[in-house]
Every structure is written in C-alpha cells, then in structure tokens.
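User: quick one
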Amino acid sequence: MENLTATWEWLSTSPLLALTLTVGLYWASDKLWEKSGRNPLLTPLLVASALICVVLVVLRLDYAAYASGAGILTFLLGPATVALALPLHRQASHVKEAAPMVLGAVLVGAFFSVLSGYWVTVLLGGSAELAASMAPKSSTTPIAMALAEQVGGLAPLAVLFVMVAGLSGAVIGPKVLDLVGVRDPRARGLAMGVASHGVGTSRAFQEGQTQGAFSGLAMGLTGLAVSVIITWLVP
Amino acid sequence: MLGGLALILALQLVGEVFVRATGLPIPGPVIGMVLFFVWLRWRKPREGSSTVHAADVLVRYLPIMFVPTTVGVVVYGPQIASQWVPALVASFGTWLLTFVLVAWVAVWLRPRRPKREAA
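Assistant: Done. Structure below.
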C-alpha cells in the first residue's frame, strides 16, 4: 500500500502521465474524427481536451501539475510558429499576388475584433477587467496574455477568450464559411487565421495547404496588428 | 531532421532575444517566422531536405500543442461564473462577426485574374 501511494505520488507529478494522457487521448480523438467523416463537433482538439478535463477531475489531478508535465507540447508552439514560414514560402507567389486581400482582411479584422470585443462586453454589463481581457482574443495565446495585462485585463481570462475564438473557428469555422458562401481557399484561410489564430490555422491545414498558408500568414500579421493598435483602442 | 530543427530553434532564439532586447510588443516566434521565411527565400531548400522535413512535422502536429492550454479552461472557467452571460455572448458573438466580416472583406479584395488578363 505504501508503495502504491508513493508510486501514485510520483506518477501524478511526472511528465510521463501528462504526456501519455495527452498524446494517447489526442491520437484516439483523431481516429474518432476520421471515423466520423471529420464531423466538426468531434474536432480532435476539442474532444481530446474535454476528455483530459474529465480525467483530471476524476483522478483529482492538479491542472498546474498537468500543464507543467505536458509543458514540452506547449513549448513546441514556438518552433511550430517559426515553421509556419514553410507553407508561406511554398505559396509565396500566390501570397504576393493577393497582398491587398491579405492586408485588408488583417487590418479590418484586427480593428473590428478589438473594438467589438471590448465594447460588446461593456454593453452587456461586463466589468472593464472582463472587457480588457476580451479585447486581444484574436491574437495567439502568448500575445493575448501579455496584451490583456497591458490594458488592464487578466491573463487567465484572456486565455479563456482566446480559446473560445480558436475553438469556434476549429469547430464551426468551415461550416460558417460554407453558409455565407465563401469558397475561395485564400479567403477561408484568412478568416481562420485572423479570427481564430493558431487553433484556426491548425484546422485550416486540415482543409488544405493554401488555406493553411494564408491562415498562418494572417495569424502572424494579426498578432502584430493587435499588439500595435490595442493600447490606443482600449480606453 | 536534426539540422532543420536546430535551425528553427536557433531562429526562434534570435527572435526571442531580439524582442526582449528591444522591448517590442511582438512575440519572439513571430520574428523567428519572418527570419525563417527570409532564409527559405534565400536558400530555397529542396523538398525532402532536413529543414523542410522538420518544418513539415512541426506544422502537422500543431493542433496537439494547443491541448494543455485548452484544458486550462476548466480552471479559468469558474472565475467568471458571475459574468458568464457577457463573457459567453461577447466572446462567441464578436468572434462570429469578425470571422464573417474578414471572409467577406477578403473575397471583396481578392485579385480577379481573368478580368485583369482580359483588360
């Protein structure tokens, strides 16, 4: 019994458990998604994360311990962001030709997202802190955390809203684009990248290389644009 | 694979050091992406080379890297229990508006090659 307790104590704080859970459940979720004919509600990121939440609650595991155990995956977001230059390089001739389209989409999206995020929250009765945490939600997690604190919000809340924006894009984004009649793969990628950052970009790559390249480009530029405009758009 | 990974890590490192040293409000990996793009345009590595392979693998497994952060929502969710209506409506509603607006602006501004050739 003593050995069992000690083993569990070791396991519950070991990266091995966090990584086995994450890689295993993501793999299973991916299989399920393929089996379901890529049903948007079964997007692997959503299903795997929900399953892990359940496991953490049932086994009474601490989120901080899990997050630090699976930290290597979060760390890889950095190099993966750098690697997004490759699809961009492959699509360079198309991107050059579409420069006005890319810049227009990014600028309109960044301004609208920050202003609407802040003011809609205020109009619905949310606190200024909540609104400031909402404003940077179109940028990727690390940028949004820093920006939220810069304008008087809270980093953990910013992560929550960034994830709502990202998961909405990953889960219903392609469907919404079909509904509003947007078929151009470049426009589809831009919408995913501007409104749903890296999570949207990872979903855009599942749709195609062009969508992914434009989404990755839009994600990078939107992060830049939001960083620059947020301090003078949020009161 | 290893050579490519070393290059990508080194470019991220340069990016991170650059933004910290200059105090720019831009994430280091985004600078790294710009540098890697310049490198790719300059060296034009062939498909199947170590660099291309490493970058392809990283991009392919991008979704799983978001899992730990997404799981964090269980922890942060309860913090806004009293303001869940504005939080939910504003985050989802303004995402949807931004998303559709960007898609339409993009379609409106897209280059129309056939017309240009006809002119």
